[in-house]
Amino acid sequence: MKARRKRAAKALLDIANDYEVKQRKFLRNIRFTETSAHWSGQAHDYSVAL
């Protein structure tokens, strides 16, 4: 489960850095559910499936 969360966090970071103005090295406040991960940025809300 921890490895899937790390992969999801990396995927969210890649997506966020494509669309957000501020480039980040890591994301805070990622919300995990049983099947997905969510993060809210300045421009959009992002989600990826676990």
UniProtKB/TrEMBL annotation:
Protein name: Uncharacterized protein
Provenance organism: Parapedobacter indicus
